Amino acid sequence: MEPSHCTVVILQRLPPQPFAIDGNISPPSSPPQPAYVSTLQSVFAQVSVTYHQAEAFKWIKEQPSSLLILDLNDQEDDSLGCYANITWVANVVQHAEDDNVPVVVCSSNETPSFMLDCVHAGAADYILKPMRLDVVKTLFLALHRRRSHSKMHDDHGSSPTLSSDNVISPAATTTTTTTTTTSTAPITPTQFQSLEHHHLNYDSGLQRRVKEMVEKDALLTKVVLDIYTPMTPVAGDMSLSSDDTLRLQEKIDSWSFSPFDLTHQELIHCVVLIMKPVLACPELDHLVITQGKKDGVEKRFATVTQRIKMLVIAHVEQLYDFISDLSSTYHDGNPYHNFAHAVDVLQCSYYILRQLRVIPFDRRQPSSVETKPQDLIRPIDVLALFIAAIGHDAAHPGVNNLFLINSATPLALLYNDRSVLESFHSMTLFQMMKKHGLDHISGGTATANYQAFRKTVITSILATDMSLHNEYVIKIKEQATRLQDSSATTTVDEEQERLLICSAIIKCADISNVARPFFVSSKWAELLVEEFACQGDLEKQLGIPVSPLNDRDKLILEDSQIGFIRFVAMGLFQQVRQVMQGK
Question: Which of 217-221, 487-491, 524-528, 549-553 has the lowest mean pLDDT?
Fold first, then answer.
């Protein structure tokens, strides 16, 4: 196969079109000739250019030895533009497979991740503009590789099949199938072979569709995160002196914990200090914790001794990197819903578990005659609750669910107006965990341990949706009655009770500001009211309904706090207290 015997079809992606109120603006019928067309014409027999996909494939059918070049619209270089380009590539590749045509992407985007995304979408090659002659001369190899690959599969498909006695030829197979097939005849090996071929074709198509779905889902997730998360790199030193460790530990153990006098790095250290002992718990020795890949080898710790030893040496670094990266998803510009709030919720969850004697784990009293509800909480549940607490508001945009729904944002549409932010926070958290290898924290995503861990994390985060607050208070009240009823004959569903207890703890922690010492709670109240007022200002600008809680002209700090304590916080705190008291 020579390049001079091949043709090239260039399919250009339409540039962004101006908004047409009367609908009269239509895309140009004939695109301008790209600068590299003359270079292609010097190598290939024929070069055609079009904006229309149908026309491109019509030309391809007329010219069997064709190569399809996708010229991307480089005017769209933001996240949405990149996603649109890759989606378009995947769509064209899917159609090109029917004609056995290799697709080469041509673009000026030099980002390696974008190049790989195009290849993962099915492109045979990726060429940077301006297109050089030496590169053009090698393009025909993509067509050669595609033809060779297809021939190999064709040869494999025409290989003889096995009968019950001996090897028979394809011709004999056809004859046998024709002469033995009747309404009562059993399925012969030959007939079974044809059915198997059908199933293989179906499986192949299914695998391709699922693969495309996964690739596009990954692209969608990337675009969503690019839009909603700042992801500003956090530079810092993970080392901590013994004096600083004692100082931070003292703050962590106090109900007067205040993140306002701590730096961002100190907040990260607080998280590590809280979570590190949980990861080192001997009761978690059945889990497989991935330290990450080093020198091409994935290191796993499966024994208690090895876990504790390696945790001190290496695993803290992985944990620190994860927390540092997760902290960068929080918007520092939010007065209230920022990383300091996440650490505050984590510290409160930690404090509650300490008061319940769930942690430290050596303080647990499993042999006690009287079993309390908190005894249902296992070390793996503590880890899940802590992960949920530190990630429960990841990438919070600074506005509430009602704003997202009323303004019909893509997030509201994506999550069907139900717990929009909480679902998004959970997705963001698990993306960060996956990035840092923590999706192997319970042995891998397919294991029962991981599924249970993930369920606890998600359930806990969804419980922070304040629109469902009263429903949760009722559930917790029913749980208190259920667990205190010594005459109950029904078997307690430990998993559901455990999930509700974790939800109750994180809910208390999420609104714990009002119960902190006044010098701490007053600061939190001011920040929360300011964030509400900022949303109200934006709602006024957009012309959408403004609730009294968000109207800067109607907000009264003292009244809002008294009302919140009386009608929201007290009911929850009282019911959780009833649950934790046990029988």
Answer: 487-491
